[in-house]
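Q:
My hope is that you can spare some time for a protein that puzzles me. I hope you can help me see how the letters and the tokens relate. Thank you; the sequence and its tokens follow:
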Amino acid sequence: MEKEIKASVTVNGKDLFCFMLQHTYRCVGGVLSLLFSLGAFVLLLKCFTTVDTAYKIILILSSLLFTVINPFLLYRRSMKQVKRNPAFTAPIEYTFTEKGFTMQQGEEKAGADWKDLWKVRDGKHYLYLYGNTVRANIIPKSQLGEQAQELSQLIKEARRAI
């Protein structure tokens, strides 16, 4: 008989923020933006006493842009998105098997085979099932309880068998 794991997941603003943050900063553009802010900070420290106030302000803003300002904006956007979208209020019922997974929310039902996913990212606190490069199913491991480890193992074995 095929192994099956069922879970009910509700994605909140913090979960969406963590996804948006890692999605933004785990690519080449994200790394380059952090390097830009770091470079601006180093430049600010190096020439703080020798430049005028306007240049200092530009360097301070450049230092904060991708390290403080952008994450703050991502946080606000994720909180607004969760409040505005009623799909975030209802739990998603997942059924995971060795072939793939199905999800159901109210009357809506969809599913995917493991081979059809673009990527699976199994992190410490979240499991992300990417359908393409931009969209992913966010599964907080805190909501899986003891099933989190079992699900991670099921997915590893299923993806290895492909």
In short: The first strand starts at residue 4 and ends at 9. The two ends are 19 Å apart (CA to CA).
